[in-house]
Write a structure and sequence with these properties.
Layout: E1 2-7, E2 10-17, E3 21-26, H1 37-43, E4 47-52, H2 69-82, E5 88-93, H3 95-106, E6 111-117, H4 126-142, H5 144-155, H6 158-163, H7 165-177, H8 180-190, E7 207-212, H9 220-229, E8 234-238, H10 245-248, H11 250-261
Parallel strand pairs: 3-4, 3-5, 5-6, 6-7, 7-8
Antiparallel strand pairs: 1-2, 2-4
Amino acid sequence: MRESIKVRGIQLVYEDHGAGEVLVFIHGQPFNRSMWQQQVAAFKAHHRLIIPDLRGYGESEVPEKITLLDELALDIIHLLAALDIQKAVFIGLSMGGQILFELYRLAPQLFRAMVLADTAAAGETAQSYVQRLQLSRDLLEKGMAAYTSEKLPQFLAKDTLAQQPTVVQHLRNMMETTPALGASVVQRGRAERRDHTEMLPTIDCPVLIIVGEEDEFTPVRVAEGMQQQIRNAELVVIKAASHMPNMEQPDAFNKALAAFLK
């Protein structure tokens, strides 16, 4: 069910499905909550699913100033407090996973478990910092359609691009309809993100790491590095998938998540 709530000065839109153990899904950039459609279908019968549009994305309100990942994490904390949710399993993909690191830093008591999909704990390098700032400017100056045309193929595996037109179109729609200002101010804030590498050995909840075998943004070696640093972390590599395994290979993704939840 679609819901809306005022959180920290921003109108936040989210979905609230089902009942039972709470799963909180955090989308990546430049996407929205609809990227989790296949997971909603698979898990709403036996779990309660909380799926927000982050501020600046989807149907949520767009801020006008730089938005740090801390801000996005605080929005989730306040949303869960308003819903009287004390514990949850958090699932974050790409930027969503980076937000989970901020969430854990701020409120580790909320975590029953954590699923990190196609993400990385390291901060920006000097080079990527500059590139992030340039991307923030480009999104405003050139628009989301230009960004989508250039970058969309990098998010998906070759087989997905060739054989799954519905997935390609869904991804295109999410990217093109993301507010350019929302994506820009978050990219500006993302450039300032913390390096959470040193926090990895201190994570004290069950952790599943999922990565698409063909992911170029956060390759398998990055996922393997996190697994080595997080105590008892599990790692699942999804074949025939790139940066969006939950959309490209939903059956494999959902199977891995279901096994972890058990």
